[in-house]
Design a protein that fits this description.
- The protein has 490 residues and is an alpha/beta fold.
- The chain has a domain of 278 residues: Rossmann fold.
- The protein has 18 helices and seven strands.
- Strands 1, 2, 3, 4, 5, 6 and 7 form a seven-stranded mixed sheet that branches.
- The N and C termini lie far apart (77 Å).
Amino acid sequence: MAGTKHIVMPIFLLVLLFLFTSSRAEQPPFSIKQHLSTVTRYSAANDGRNSNIAPAPDGCVPIHLNLVARHGTRDPTKKRIRELNNLESQLDMLIRGSVGNDSSLRKVPSWFKGWKSPWRGKVKGGGLIPEGEEELYYLGIRTRKLFSDLFSDDYSSEVYTIKATQVPRASASAVAFGMGLFSGRGSLGSDRRRAFSVISESRASDTMLRFFDCCQKYEDYRKNQEPAVDKLKEPVLDDITKSLTERYGLNFTRLHISSLWFLCKQEASLLNITNQACGLFSPSEVALLEWTDDVELFILKGYGNSLNYKMGIPLLEDVVQSMKQAIKAKEEKLVLGSYEKARLRFAHAETVVPFTCLLGLFLEGPDVGQTLREQPLQLPPQPPATRIWKGSTVAPFAGNNMLVLYNCPANLSDKYFVRVLHNEEPITMPGCDNSDFCSFKVFMENIVAPHLEHDFDTLCTVDGEEPVLEPESSKLSLFHWLFWLRNDNR
């Protein structure tokens, strides 16, 4: 009997070891390129997946497509370039502060010494980089392949409307997309390119794609909330500051950590460098830093305040109008080439995120009801808890929402349906019984109609009577956020 026990125990331990190693093997390796919030490249956000959409129900044919896309990967802005230039002298001062302490200097990464910003000398920032052009170019090619019937007509600006903001990286993204979409369909050069039109509104009056610049109430809200967001980040930054100070023997401050995290994101996304600034942080620290970015996105652009997405109503109205016109053209049996088949828009994260919220995407359970009542949601949970709201998924570079209108003549109750694709993947709509294929009638009643009760001018006028609702949450971690919201609302 004793001998049997001695045999069973090693076997039991071997089974446990096998199960542990198997579970570890199933976990994908950590890739920091997928954890850069809205600085994440499109390919990293999609994890190399290609569009592979399940076919629509039998007899359903796409008749119209709406696209709302963010510009591709870009250089840091002028303000951020100055921050990186200042980081040079800050790192040098940190090294000088450790001179004479050989044990500390041995811990310092070699790249620290004499580091120079790759963007030093750049006069202008924020421009689309070649990889950003490619993101939109190939998105255009895939879109035409995916909806070949929609893009079978000869190009006409009245059939395929392309709009972009006046910001160069957005209009350049529109051009790159169009070059892919219409490649081989023209007569220019050996590649048979063709010319096409891109329409832009003045920045000062572009309430459709730059509503965030035209809404004074939002401008005031954002200005008032930014200190609260910084306060919310402080505990995470302080903990990581302490860890890095002990790890490398340098007197880091919270500002150093913030700048080094920004450098990490730029190096990894734009330069494919992950062993310098990114190498300073452990995976768990990266997860926390990513969370701070995602929380900022949530509060200032997402579900954190209903004004963030309500001001995007002009864009939602434009999308719905184009769908109604497509339905009318189908009902009246207009000839091909005489009606619009696609409306394609290129803008910014500040456009895509509110529009995503208007559609009610990335919501769970009771959150749907809260957004319809225009109440802010609780903040995304802090790691290691999992969360559905991630900037790398919601709005990476070139992130996009496609709304495809289908005609299903065999369906007696509703002949028209809407399918939403987020970053080329079908995504369920909580407002449509968690389906990605929603009848147009239900789409209008459950998702669109509650928002159309508002008027952009009324929402955004500072002297208006529209109240800003206070969030419902009892979590202590939200104290600073709630404190600032209350002050702002008063």
